[in-house]
Amino acid sequence: MNETQNTARVAVVTGASRGLGLALARALATDGWQLVVTARGGAELAAAETELAALTKVVALTGSVVDDDHRERIAEAAAALGGASLLVNNASTLTGYELAGARPPALADHPQAGLLETFEVNVLGPIVLTQLLLPQLRERRGAVLNISSDAAVEAYAGWGAYGASKAALDHASAVLGREEPSVAVWAVDPGDLRTRMHQEAFPGEDISDRPVPATVVPAFLGLLRDRLASGRYSAVGLLAAGE
Question: How many CB atoms lie within 10 A of CB 24?
């Protein structure tokens, strides 16, 4: 990416306390990026902050992307570091409520409150946070990386709310890519990974055959390095193209 000389690159990563978000934050920190990281779990985010602070300058903010004040704090923190060149919208929820050991519900049985939260976390939060950071991203010809899912394009029983929200985020990403020619806007399907959220979707089942998040991080780093055109990608496809 084109950066002002002697200005550190700044990335904002949501959902950065564990899983893919933490793996991406770790890789960016190793590559010299300064970070604003956020997540809902305070204890996990504090542990992530300790690890990342050994690699780079990091600001950790506990809160939800649904919260207006929290989004404002994220934008202010990025500006204080010099301005964001990258926004990673990784924070998401599977069903919008605690699963308590049960599989995600069918759409016919999905509580309305859970539907609302799913779309607030997975769609509204990322869009509004992007709006707040766009002035910084435009100035630096930066990028928005929205974490998608194959559930956005495939119909999986029990994944209706999540899949529909990711499909909406995909479409918003595509529109933003048309509207913001100076900013790269990517929606990327990371594939099935060994994460807590994926385990919640399959309670009691062994998901150890899924790859850990770190295995797909090179796909995202390549996307940043090569600054591919705005669009929808899969980590598997990006890794294959880089071989």
Answer: 28
* Given 97, 156, 162, 233, the catalytic residue: 162
Render each residue's pLDDT in the chain as its tens digit; 243 residues. Answer: 444 334 789 999 999 998 999 999 999 999 999 999 999 989 999 999 999 999 999 999 999 999 999 999 999 999 999 999 999 999 999 887 766 667 788 999 999 999 999 999 999 999 999 999 999 999 999 999 999 999 999 998 888 999 999 999 999 999 999 999 999 999 999 977 655 666 566 566 655 666 778 888 999 999 999 999 999 999 988 998 876
Residue 178, in any domain of the structure = yes
Classify residue 204 as left (phi > 0), alpha (psi -120 to 50) or beta.
left
Does the annotation mark 162 as catalytic? Answer: yes
Listed in sequence order, the residues at least 6 apart from 169 whose beta carbon sits closer than 8 Å to its beta carbon are 89, 122, 123, 126, 127, 146, 148, 152, 187
State which residues form the domain around 14: 10-241
* Chain mean position to CA 56: 20
Report whether 143 contacts 184 (CB < 8 A).
yes
As for how many domains the chain has, the answer is: 1
